[in-house]
Amino acid sequence: MSKQVLDIPVLNEKLLAQLQSLSQNPLRTSSWKNFLQSGFPSVKHEEWRFTPLENSLKKIQKVSSAVPISLPAEAEKIIASLEPIDAYKVILVNGKPISNLVNTPDGISLLSLKEAQKNFPEIISSHFGKYLNTEKETFNALNTALTNDGVFIHLKKNSQTEKPIHIISVHDNREEGIYSTSRILIVAEEGAKAHIVETHISTAENFSLQNLGAEIIVKQNARIEYHLIQHFSLLGKSEASVIDSRQVVLEKDSFCNFTTVSMSGALIRNNLHMLFNAQNGEGHLYGLYLPSKNELMDNHSLVDHAMPNCFSNEFYKGIMTENGKGVFNGKIMVRKDAQKTNAYQNNRNLLLSDDAGLNAKPQLEIFADDVKCSHGATSGQLDEDAMFYLRARGIGEMEAKKLLTLAFAEDVLVQTKHEGLHNQIDKWIEEKLSV
Amino acid sequence: MLEIKNLKASVEGKEILKGINLKVSAGEIHAIMGPNGSGKSTLASVLAGKQDYTVTDGEILFEGKNLLDMKIEERAHEGIFLAFQYPVEIPGVSTVNFLKTAVNETRKAKGLAPIEAKDFLATMREKMKLVEMDSKLTSRALNEGFSGGEKKRNEVFQMAMLEPKLAILDETDSGLDIDALRIVAHGVNTLRNKNNAFIVITHYQRLLDYIVPDFVHVLSNGKIVKSGTKELAFELEEKGYDWVKEETINS
User: Fold this and answer.
1) Which residues from A are below 8 Å from B77, CB to CB?
2) What is the ipTM of this complex?
3) How far out from the chain centre does Cα B132 lie?
4) pTM of the model
5) CA distance, residue A390 to nearest chain B CA (Å)
6) Helix axes of B117-130 and B178-191: crossing angle, nearest 10 degrees
7) A187, A292, A382, B162 - which has most CB atoms within 10 Å?
């Protein structure tokens, strides 16, 4: 049998030490057991074929401490440079919230998971760890075993925010080889409505790896707009990496629009899973990834239609430059009972260099007979006729490339429906293409 | 202004232009007519710098400078404008943003500062009137979903904005109804002056009723086989291209 598991004893020891420093509970213990059983996946593992982890894992020198530290000056600088989003903000450093409770309107709670355990014990116990699969997904198991803080957002029944909630997650990699654990739990009760933005940045050039686990529960009639932005090289080339696993659960008549924008990062793996847990749910998954020099961005999504009459639309676009590598693996599962499902998937890729690479794998597994599903994947270069047209009007080659690339990204970005964010991302793309 | 000497060009090893000679001076309008496949559009593309064509012999001088040494955008900066036979649809790029970039890139090449936003808008409004273009079109993606007539008017509108020295109109009349044709021709006639020149490529004489050429050339099988004044166009209309072809063979 081929070796599907990586053997890194030194790292396992460090992780075990971290586990032992935490208070024990049954979920932690069973998750750790699951992690030990599965181990870290090698490229022999089907879901990790194009995303080698060994070199990254070997660079881990230290497991981030459980105690929240203050905001590094580098992070302050980057945060100040971000397009200001008028929002309720919470700042995390290596997965742990550093700011105190934010004043939010009635019905909206934004606090650390630790505080939430005191203030919302019932909600935590009925939701935390209930959705992320810790049996099949080794990083979820490890995350659940080592989580001791994170972000908790609770939206009361029929609550609404006029401003977005902004989670700024700082990956502090001023020291080489930091491994950190981050955890997010969001519960939108019946009829609640919110826009959440999550921005990941790093403070230095060193390698770091974060294991992030998030559970997002959207109850009956609730609506969530979510923007996840990963941009680690804002201060200069950064080796910060992340394995981001999310489970979105959609209840009856609920809605979620989840957009992932991966701007920069040495290794980004997004496992976005959306489960339709009741009828009439509507889910959108949009993604934009721009791997450039020595970057690998892997989007693994699972849209799980477990119940009838739901609608899902997945649309991901990749822009690969230099020797950047993109991976898109989109699985749509339509279970036996999920009649009248509408599920669409589209993945389009732009390869702007001969050294760039892409692996796309759409997967449809349909067990119901009355469904509408489609998928498509394309990859190609910029349209030569369009390039000629722009240049014939006096637009230089570089500028023409930028215009067309931004245009390519536009139909994903238009989904942000937030002008400030949209402009910010446009500007970042231009910067990335100007290098 | 423009001097083409013994120009030969091929695509994928097949020779399309087989020795073109043409001189265009400021203030002139030249019409190039010819049957399908004679090389008319190839000539336009080679002038604009399209890379699908390989120039195998000859030279093109534009105001004394070697055009063939210039990049596509440099030719545009020098004042060459190609009005496309099939303007490309570019989703995601708004017409106004595209034009602003084009104007500013051309200004940059001349060492000028970017145009003031209000000046740009004022010029745009004025030039749009010239081709009776709906202002809604400029906020839409470039040529996307434009009708045939709208696309051609957009070409002339861009020409008006960029004020080229030499404009090449590649079958601008194809797919136009008579009203659109009049509007496009009116645009061209308004823009013409003693300092600029036009090369009007067309299959039919019809356009030349509206844009009156100083010279008419007949292109056949990659060569200019006959040149004359506007009367030549009428003769062609009457007798067809076979007449020129036969004449060439006989001579």
Assistant:
1) 394
2) 0.95
3) 20
4) 0.90
5) 8
6) 130
7) A187
